[in-house]
Design a protein that fits this description.
The structure is a single chain. Strand 1 and strand 2 form a beta hairpin. The strands form two sheets. The protein has a two-stranded antiparallel sheet. Strands 3-4 form a two-stranded antiparallel ribbon. It is 64% helix and 13% strand. The longest helix is centred in the C-terminal third of the chain and has 44 residues. By secondary structure, it is an alpha+beta fold.
């Protein structure tokens, strides 16, 4: 038997047998995949933000340099550039990194929207007592 709460939301009885259909299982799997993808994207975002911080610090340090030539690391090789060219390269790197960060943030938001939709569908069918879809990391990020 099912019971109805005051708000009119349908809540299944925890003692009742709940049938999980193939579509339900696919939604649950999709939700789990989204959780894993968001965790990966958040790690990547953290790394990109650290790289951006390093670029910002390099830009600030170059402003203090009196030398005409400066060593600049590209990949695994140091090259010598004049200060103006190095500043230009750093600025381009910064803009590129900012675009990468924005792209990752868009991906995270899109996945979170999909997860919200899946949560409402799954909680609507199974109720909060019968399925747990909360990510403990969400509380730390806020």
């Amino acid at each position: 038997m099912a019971k109805v709460e005051k708000k009119g939301a349908f809540q299944p009885d925890p003692d009742a047998d709940i049938k999980i259909t193939f579509d339900d299982q696919m939604r649950i799997n999709q939700f789990a995949n989204h959780v894993a993808k968001i965790e990966d994207l958040k790690e990547e975002l953290k790394s990109k933000k650290a790289e951006l911080t390093n670029i910002d610090e390099a830009i600030e340090e170059i402003e203090l340099v009196d030398d005409e030539q400066i060593q600049f690391l590209i990949g695994e090789v140091f090259i010598f550039n004049n200060v103006e060219k190095t500043q230009k390269l750093l600025q381009e790197s910064k803009e590129s990194k900012e675009k990468e960060i924005a792209s990752i943030e868009v991906q995270v938001n899109e996945i979170q929207e999909k997860m919200t939709s899946l949560k409402s569908q799954l909680y609507g069918k199974f109720g909060h007592k019968n399925i747990y879809l909360e990510n403990d990391d969400d509380e730390d990020d806020q």
